Amino acid sequence: MEAKRPFSARRFFLQWEWMLVVLFVLVNVFNSFLSPYYLSPTGLRDVTMTFLDKAFIVLPMVFIIILGDIDISVASIVALSSVVMAMAFGAGLPMPVAIVLCLVVGTACGAFNGWLITRFKELSAVIVTLATMIIFRGIAYMLLENQAAGHFPGWYTFLGWGYVFEVPFMLIVFVVFAVFFAWVLHKTALGRRVYAMGSNPMAARFSGLKVDGIRMLVFTATGFMSGVTALFLTSRMGSTRPNVASGYELEVITMVVLGGISTSGGKGRLIGAVLAVFLLGYLRYGLGLVNVPAQILLIIIGLLLVIAVMMPNVLSRKKLP
Amino acid sequence: MDKTRRASRNLGLMAFIVGLSVLVQVLNPSFLTPENIADLTKNTAILAILALGMMLVIITRGIDLSIGATLALSGMIASQTVAMWKDTHPVVAVLLGTLIGLLCGAAVGGLVSKGKVLPIIASLGLMNVFRGLTFLVSGGKWVSANQMPVSFKAIASSGFLGINTLVWIAVVIFVVGWWFVNWNRVGRQIYAVGSNPDSAQVSGINNDRILLLVYTIMGGLSGLAGVLWVSKFASAQGDTATGFELSVIAACVLGGVSIAGGTGTISGILLGALLLGILNNALPLVNVSPFWQTFIQGTIILVAVLINALVKRRGIRATMQKRKI
User: Fold this and answer.
1) Chain A residues close to B294, C-beta within 8 Å
2) Which domains can be identified in chain A, with CATH numbers?
3) B121, A253: Cβ pair inside 8 Å?
4) How far is Cα A216 from Cα A194, in angstroms, rounded to an integer?
5) Interface pTM (ipTM) of the complex?
6) Cβ contact (<8 Å) for B302 and A295?
7) Contact yes or no for A124 and B133 at CB 8 A
8) What are the phi and psi torsion angles at A185 (to 5°)?
9) What is the rounded CA–CA span in Å between residue A43 and residue A39?
10) Is the whole model's pTM more than 0.90, yes or no?
11) pLDDT tens across A63-116, in order?
12) Which domains occur in chain B, in start order?
């Protein structure tokens, strides 16, 4: 066991997570100068509901990227489970059954990814999820063609729009999930094993970890959380189409990477990704208030992703003699 | 040993293409008519050009998801140029598009080689940047057919010896590409970097330069394809070729290019692109709903990847069994 290092204030505040906190504060100060409407408590509270839907996928994606894998099929899973739910409800099934079906479809898609990746180890997760990304989206199109489906019961809109004691319901659910995922990653044996597999897969396998089981579990969990995202997203939109959530995989991966989780695996903490979710969410809100077009946001997100990945690589190279 | 396996794979693919063509012909006799074949080859030309570039990228263990956006950006700028100065020579438009593509590709390549960013992340990020730039440059507006001069639209509609210009361009690129990957030193170095980066580095190959080169070539070909695309459809839009990168990757995977790097042949991707082109052409002819095409394409990619993996496993097992212990 490594002895506990003495506490150093310098090291503590030089962590990436503090950088994110500072950036978060800067973004908010900047935004409040941009628009006088920015700093209203209800506005700041309600805007969380516009970006938290995809944040549910960020949590398991942290695990996947720590494993050194990637999953680019998540947006298609969201679309497929949302479409299945809407069609099940449209076919006369009661809404609770349709909701369960949505989660089941999501989980099944994730499990399918996991099965392919563990059964065919020579294939990288990139190519497998690239193929399933097309397949899942394709099934959504086969089911609904280019129509929209909706007309959900009134109480279903509570998911995306409701409050519990003045706090958005979505925010509460997200915090519960975030605490659970953080607990699993940082406090359980499973979490330690995920880090071990990410930093050295071979060593992890030789020390007797059930690597296949863990990868399977992580990809299945990602499918399930994509189903959760589908629930909230559909509730917010009130109806669904086969092309919903397009581009979500990019935003989710950007948030995870911006949160300091290294794409080479084995490094990063969940809190970083959660901070990145709020950082990007409020940045988008502020720029939206001053009518910055969506295309510029697209450029900003793309650049942020690339810079966030490149930064540690460039910094670590400087340290080498 | 490896060569015979590859040859038998290409033969299998060819047999599949012939079988598919016969089936489609039985279902719809208008498939194998000269007009439809001309249409098919013209539509496949752009896919094949891009597949060649993508093969080089995948050989180095990379992937480039930004090419659809690069294509849109260079197509948009080229068509805006010809719309503004109507007497621009088409060759200038083609060169302009290719130049923009080269710049975009060099940006991806620089991130991958110098920045050590994973190819999928670098190209995913820049895909958004290029797509955003396309919308910015166009201001959200289309460049439509009546804004383009006849000479520009003629790039894709003219022909030589009865064969469309697009097909000729693809043929030239494939001949040069075949020479490049088989007989040129730098071309061979691409394979070396892909099959074993460490030993390539040790044997004196500048890996970073090769990586930069393949992404730049990919970008240049996407820029060229952008001009051809816009000329062919006679319209440039912000969302031109969205998702086309997936078809290109599919053509490569079908053609036996291994995602693990180091393998891929010109003949393979030609067959892969042809198969996809036939499918795209034939599915509407046999009344398959357009909404099924995404699913069919995805399934084909997955099955091709899995078959590649299984065939490779069997090869490894056969070699192991031959070994004397």
Assistant:
1) 134, 137-138, 141
2) 46-306 (1.10.3470)
3) yes
4) 12
5) 0.80
6) no
7) no
8) -70, -40
9) 7
10) no
11) 999 998 889 899 999 999 999 999 888 888 888 898 999 999 999 999 999 999
12) 42-285+293-305 (1.10.3470)
